[in-house]
Structure to design on (91 residues):
């Protein structure tokens, strides 16, 4: 029996040095986004973004307004999912 190895897909810029422009963008994104959202916008892994932020003194602590927007978004997504699941099971 042959073993299958599953690998995760790495970004195209995996292992590349961070540019000044990327650091500026990271700092700007950290003000009102999560680490995951910043990673997606930068095309980097969440671990790489978190590590670079930590080493650069950049915090991902969201402001109260950003946290409220994020929670509202999560409630909306959850509501949509629960409605689609309910409609799928009732058919």
């Amino acid at each position: 029996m042959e073993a299958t190895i599953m690998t995760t897909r790495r970004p195209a810029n995996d292992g590349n040095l961070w540019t000044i422009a990327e650091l500026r963008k990271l700092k700007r994104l950290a003000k009102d986004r999560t680490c995951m959202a910043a990673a997606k916008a930068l095309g980097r892994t969440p671990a790489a973004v978190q590590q670079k932020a930590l080493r650069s003194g950049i915090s991902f602590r969201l402001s109260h307004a950003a946290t409220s927007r994020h929670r509202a978004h999560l409630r909306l997504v959850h509501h949509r999912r629960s409605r689609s699941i309910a409609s799928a099971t009732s058919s």
User: Anything to note?
Assistant: The chain is about 65% helix and 0% strand.
